Write the structure tokens for this entry.
Amino acid sequence: MPEQYQDVIIAGFGGQGVMLIGNLLAQAGMEYGLEVSFIPVYGAEMRGGTANCTVVMDKHPIGAPLVREPLSTIVLNEPSLAKFQPRLNPHGVQVVNASLVEAGLVDAARRSVCIPANDMAHELGNVKLANMVALGAWLKATAVLPLAVVQEALKRVVNAHYANLIPINARALEAGYNFA
Amino acid sequence: MSTEQRILIKGNEAVAFGAVDAGLRCYFGYPITPQNEIPEALSTLLPERGGQFVQAESEVAAVNMLLGAAACGVPSMTSSSGCGLSLMQEGISYMAGSHIPGVLVNMQRGGPGLGDIGPSQGDYFQAVKGGGHGDHRNLVLAPATAQECYDCMFRALALAFKYANPVLVLGDAIVGQIKEPVRRVPPADAVSEKTLAALAAPWRMEGYGKRGPDAQPRLLKSVYLAEGALAERNRLLAQKYAAMQAECAWECTDVEDATLVVVAFGSVARIARSTIRRLRAEGVRVGLFRPLTLFPFPAEALLALLPGRRFLVMEQNLGQMVEDVRLALFGQPGVTPATVQWHGIMPGLFVNADDLREPMLQALKEAF
């Protein structure tokens, strides 16, 4: 069990599955025995612009569900990099979707994991898996939760109607985890 | 740490689960963000249990349906946000005037007017000072977590029936939208549906002849036109509101050695708790007083903390609860205007623990 408090802002276009991996991470954290909170930033941003959510995990009951300087981020598109890279905690790590974000925009002074999530997802057979690939890379970078706990939690988060897609989502998490 | 029975749900969903588990039979409401998960969940949960879910044509219709169902002694509720509650105020006043129980949830959004869909505590005055016309009071509960949203629905229904009075659950966009682990287990002080029914037995509308041929007709009303009748009614109401003082509830964290006590409720209180934990780790002597009931306001408990301490009221509005804190403390020996400080967060903003740090440190500097 991690000794440290951890938080993450997950951001991307509406439709990239930002809320899904936020929910998955919070569900997995809870099943792992942690206190967790998930909060979406919703509203006009949902369509077209950037959508984001914040997940906090801790051993203690969680007070603030929102953070000014996140200890980590998962950035799935360029507008989200512009918004959240400047806010990243100096000791934090960002997982950046290199398929959609220009490499030159990533601040070299920050700890970054640049992963071609869309390309890897495409190779797995469905570009919609990019969110899972990115989350897999985040799990490796932060070591907050074991990969298997998150894969197992898919059963509770993915709608029963799409249960047939759980194995491919689990593989996408693993591909991201094993990247680099 | 036990993981048993924990489910990850939004505060809004926790309200719905808590309400049905506490014995809710009827829901009437009209959609508005940020509380839509309440009717969404209840639209499935209530019919499954033989209850009634009605999406009303407006908030005005919803509150009057609530009045009608509650007058029959049926555990009932509505929910809305901000401007929706404003529309319901006439009905709430009628319920209070008629001794009719009902639960109303307000997941506050930014105001005034249509405002925005972000968090706010701007409806504090409306909730705790009555809100509708005439002299009336609502019991007001202030949950801060999804678990408290679940638990407080039991308390809300029990209090509504105990006092035959409207009970407001005052959350906000953060409390409603946050997803957290919840144990779906009735709290220790949960009241059974049988108890609710027994509390309503002396006054509820049951239909002609149901109570036998000799039963006297019943009338629930708020209109008293005969000379002296309304005065008598208000005397009764005043006694009821005074009796409600027994329901004061609050929570103290880290206050024992604190020189500064932050006074906050709902989402701001939980965020302040994070800030306080970090300041405590740095050796800063700051604590938290969190009212769990806003009416009645736990003034005596606050007063008990007075010796040697000063207070910083933090709330997401332009200064509302601070007036109740001042009422509780002013006039006491040694209290000066500087004893109670205030920090407001503008409605609509999403605040974090860092945002509250400087105001606390500043208040400490000024405190002594």
Summary: The mean pLDDT of chain B is 96. Chain B has two domains: 6-199, 250-367. Chain B touches chain A at residues 1, 3, 6, 8, 33-34, 116-117, 145, 174, 177-181, 270-275, 277, 350-355 (CB under 8 Å).
